[in-house]
Amino acid sequence: MLDPVGAAACCPPLTARPLSQAQADQIAPLLKALADPVRLRLMSLVASHRGGEACVCDLNDAFDLSQPTISHHLKVLHDAGLLDRDKRGVWVYYRVRSAALASIAAMIAGTPAIG
User: Fold this and answer.
1) Helix (H) or strand (E) holding 91
2) In terms of CB atoms within 10 Å, which of 2, 10, 25, 46 comes out highest?
3) What is the mean pLDDT of each run of 10 residues along the chain (115 residues)?
């Protein structure tokens, strides 16, 4: 799993100076994980879900996709370090890593990250 907080923290805000190749290589997987419309919606659904976490069973009905496809997209987000997950019985619950999103946003917006 990537450490998106560390990856984004490695890099100055985009407005400060150009990223090095190494910095761009570090940040690109995080942005690539978010660049898919399904994954972006999944992040939004999880983040806005009551209590800040959502069961995969709560997410399936929001898409016209199979459960394995939804699980694949959630795995991509988890492997990128953008979601935490917790298995409870047969279900998996997901939570957004808020610090990861804040770090990425700060790098893009050129403002200090909170948290």
Assistant:
1) strand 91-96
2) 46
3) 56 74 83 94 94 90 92 94 93 90 77 54
